[in-house]
């Protein structure tokens, strides 16, 4: 297999594994069992078996944000640290499983990314137990907020208002959608939206899907307008802007959905007055979508991100998209700007717990990325079965993007 060496996009830093709330790993299970009274073999039998999302082998834990085995963990780390880009000898659709995971390194690496492994999670300094350090030049970053000294917050020397990119994101955050004032004709019924939501016995799945499709389309319009306001985004080549939006919209909309649905009460709020619960999701054939989004919402709720952190994390989803671009250098600069702004924001808000909290925020990225194929699959099937009429923009965004 041929390969060539090139510079891959790299973030600043993030953790290699989440804390206990993200996995029922062997370590947490062992902590509840007395080794004096139970044999080791019995313990192993009782431990939950987690599957590597990349190759299907037994996972040893969460590595770079994803349940994976030691082999795939080492492969991903080696690829990032070595700045290696592989070339598939076939057509980039090789099957990756336990038996064939070594057959094509290119497709294996792409599957690592597709499953949500974070490049930012790999320590580039190669020092065991070490941490990457932010090396910044404020003269080269117009959106840079200087890191305060330990007493800067209490002395009033640093505030969120100094974070210029955050100020822009806050100003252009789209207003929440509302079905009742969106001009949507609910199958020509003259009904109050609250009645529509509270009593769905007379509302069929096609009607709910029609409303949901329109909401997705309206959100896509808002996301495109929002992205153009982010400092640095319009500096990218126009073709790259389109690819980033097409590759990240599902993750962005999932994060917005999670933000709207906290605190979680079993309902996914796609608008202020339109939601799906488990029952209505089953009626619409959206069980997988509902289940994954519900888990993501619960993770977002546990982290308790501020609205400022939410704004920056959403921008990071746009900047962290793995798609083939014309100018990777410009994207790298754009992404570093967002990462630096997020780091600064978390430091101002959390201070003593900033490192841990930023780790938790970054660990949301794999779950959001895993929502992408679920959403695309669901809506592509809806379109193929001609269940509802879908707008042109939505259909264009559903088209596969080269990664």
UniProtKB/TrEMBL annotation:
One Pfam family in the UniProt entry: Hormone_recep
Highest taxon of the lineage: Eukaryota
Q: What InterPro entries does the database record attribute to this sequence?
A: Est_rcpt/est-rel_rcp, NHR-like_dom_sf, Nucl_hrmn_rcpt_lig-bd, Nuclear_hormone_rcpt_NR3, Nuclear_hrmn_rcpt, Znf_hrmn_rcpt, Znf_NHR/GATA
* Alphabetical list of PROSITE patterns matching this protein: NR_LBD, NUCLEAR_REC_DBD_1, NUCLEAR_REC_DBD_2
What's a single GO CC term here? nucleus
Could you tell me which CDD domains the record lists for this protein? NR_DBD_ERR
Keyword annotations for this protein?
A: DNA-binding, Lipid-binding, Metal-binding, Nucleus, Receptor, Steroid-binding, Transcription, Transcription regulation, Zinc, Zinc-finger
GO molecular function per UniProt: nuclear steroid receptor activity; sequence-specific DNA binding; steroid binding; zinc ion binding
> Can you say where in the cell this protein is located?
Nucleus
Q: Hey, which family's this protein in?
A: Belongs to the nuclear hormone receptor family. NR3 subfamily.
PANTHER family linked to this entry: KNIRPS-RELATED PROTEIN-RELATED
Tell me the protein's name. Estrogen-related receptor
């Amino acid at each position: 297999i041929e390969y060539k060496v090139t510079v891959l996009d790299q973030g600043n830093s993030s953790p290699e594994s989440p804390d206990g709330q993200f996995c029922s790993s062997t370590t947490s299970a062992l902590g509840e069992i007395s080794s004096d009274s139970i044999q080791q073999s019995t313990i192993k039998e009782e431990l939950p078996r987690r599957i590597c999302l990349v190759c299907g082998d037994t996972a040893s834990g969460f590595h770079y944000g994803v349940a994976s085995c030691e082999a795939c963990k080492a492969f991903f780390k080696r690829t990032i640290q070595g700045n290696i880009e592989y070339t598939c000898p076939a057509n980039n659709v090789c099957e990756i499983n336990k038996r064939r995971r070594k057959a094509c390194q290119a497709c294996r690496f792409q599957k690592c990314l597709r499953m949500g492994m974070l490049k930012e999670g790999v320590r580039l300094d190669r020092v065991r137990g070490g941490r990457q350090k932010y090396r910044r030049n404020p003269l080269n970053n117009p959106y840079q907020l200087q890191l305060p000294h330990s007493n800067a917050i209490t002395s009033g020397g640093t505030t969120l208002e100094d974070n210029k990119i955050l100020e822009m994101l806050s100003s252009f955050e789209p207003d929440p959608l509302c079905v009742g004032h969106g001009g949507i004709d609910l199958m020509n019924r003259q009904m109050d939206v609250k009645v529509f939501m509270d009593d769905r016995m007379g509302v069929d799945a096609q009607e709910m899907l029609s409303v949901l499709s329109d909401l997705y389309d309206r959100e896509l319009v808002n996301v495109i307008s929002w992205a153009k306001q982010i400092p640095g985004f319009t500096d990218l080549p126009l073709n790259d802007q389109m690819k980033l939006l097409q590759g990240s919209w599902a993750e962005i909309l999932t994060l917005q959905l999670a933000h709207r649905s906290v605190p979680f009460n079993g309902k996914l709020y796609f608008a202020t007055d339109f939601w799906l619960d488990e029952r209505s999701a089953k009626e619409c054939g959206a069980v997988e979508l509902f289940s994954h989004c519900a888990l993501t919402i619960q993770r977002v709720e546990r982290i308790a991100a501020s609205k400022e952190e939410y704004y920056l994390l959403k921008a990071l989803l746009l900047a962290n998209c793995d798609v083939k671009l014309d100018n990777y250098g410009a994207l790298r600069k754009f992404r570093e700007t967002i990462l630096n702004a997020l780091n600064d924001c978390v430091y101002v808000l959390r201070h003593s717990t900033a490192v841990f909290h930023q780790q938790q925020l970054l660990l949301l990225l794999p779950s959001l990325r895993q929502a992408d194929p679920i959403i695309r699959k669901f809506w592509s099937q809806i379109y193929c079965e001609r269940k509802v009429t879908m707008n042109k923009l939505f259909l264009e965004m559903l088209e596969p993007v080269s990664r």
